[in-house]
Amino acid sequence: MTNQLNDPRTMNGWALFDWANSAFALVITTAIFPPYFAAVIDDKFTVAGFEFSDSSWLTLTITISYLIIAVLSPLLSGIADVGGRRKGFLKFFTTMGGVGCIGLFWFNGMDTLWLGTIAFAMGLIGFAGGLVFYNSFLPVIATQDKFDKLSAKGFAMGYVGSVLLLVLNLAMVQKPEWFGLPTEGTLAVRLAFITVGIWWLVFAAISLARLPDDVRKSGTSFADMAGQGMAELQSVWTRVSKSTPTKRFLAAFFSYSAGVQTVIFLASIFAAKELGFESSELILVVLILQIVAVGGAYLAASVSKRYGNKASIYFQLIIWFCICLAGYFVQGKTTFYAVAAAVGLVMGGIQSMSRSTYAKLIPTREDVTSYFSFYDVLEKVAIVGGTAIFAILDLITGSMRMSLLALSLFFALGMVILWGFHLPEAKPVENDLTEDLIDEE
What we know:
Elements: H1 8-31, H2 33-40, E1 44-47, E2 50-53, H3 54-83, H4 86-103, H5 113-135, H6 138-141, H7 147-174, H8 187-210, H9 222-241, H10 244-275, H11 279-307, H12 309-329, H13 333-361, H14 368-397, H15 400-418, H16 432-440
Antiparallel strand pairs: 1-2
């Protein structure tokens, strides 16, 4: 498949991947699995002499999973660039994630805690591991003037698609008799996990078929590719370290990502434990988040078009900071719905705008996976830090409110760092990679 810049079929195919994998982000990590996990295991339990709560165990699983991918991502991204394995790695992690979701079907209580933990971790690693390769296609398939809108389109499609699947899952859980399922027990919920895995695998296959094929280099061993990949990463790091705007943006991104991702992961558990939300109410909260987020992603792109990327991100960080403060004081369910709507407004926007802003900072189209590996690793390490701090404060204080208040500091620091950031002027598009791909085929 040849790679033509700004080809509508290719760009739509790229955005469709968000439609595919966002079902995991919504149904598994946010809406259904966390409350299910809390419901089928003990509130407190001991493993290897250490006492855990259900929320701290789940948070620790997220932390370890993202730590694993943070370690692997730089090496794999270097191999992807040197050996032409970007699409191949994306397929691998997608398969791992989909299989992990399906494996959750057999998790039904304390007796299968390790099975559920491993399957959930596989889903997390598959989801997070694929993102660096998926994101790195953005500057390969589109010109810089398309980045903001295309990035927003991806997130918007992800929110729409995941909401559609969540509505189906909600019907299965709330009205199992409509599907010929027993009204007692957990079968309907566990079948929902299977639907996520199938959804992810099927739509990702369509997306992958539309993305540029790998141009593999024959006669190179894995060890050679690994060595060359690490050398390329060092070369990219040298270039990144010499770019003040890139360094400043990545530092700000690292700080506020710790807050963004932790809030997204743990919002439903917070609502359940601190405010007594039932499963049906949690689903409504998540639906509000997703629906509002569709408009939020496009709103961020519109603000960027008029005022610039920095202003768009800064505006959203102010809202995120206020959300953490409001979350600390919130008591009633009605107020929490309003906070959830605010999260939705900036949830997609901050991620979409961060991705497109970083893509604009990449000076070449040859080493994009290695460039995005720094972006990806920083995000994963930020998640590790954010969730670890959240878990520690949760264990010490017995309340998630102090943890949420601590997250506001990440957004404040992000705003301070971002203050001196300025996006360089757009450079002419480099067509060398496109020509190489066409020549090879």
